[in-house]
Amino acid sequence: MTKLHNWIFCPRQARTSDLVLRKIEVSDLTRARGKLAPNWEDPYWIIDIVREGTYRLATIEGEQLPRI
């Protein structure tokens, strides 16, 4: 049981220059296409770690995303 618990709840270590997916917010009505709508946006680069779990992201082309 402990091994399974540790595998499921292991913390993820993200570093700068990692590629990540950004979760699409439900309140975005322009993307509301029902149950089959995508849950994740394009891959982004992590360019800075603000604090644990908070990152500054940039597109693949290098354009920095604004804060949400």
UniProtKB/TrEMBL annotation:
Descriptive protein name: Uncharacterized protein
Species, as recorded: Ensete ventricosum (Abyssinian banana)
Lineage: Eukaryota, Viridiplantae, Streptophyta, Embryophyta, Tracheophyta
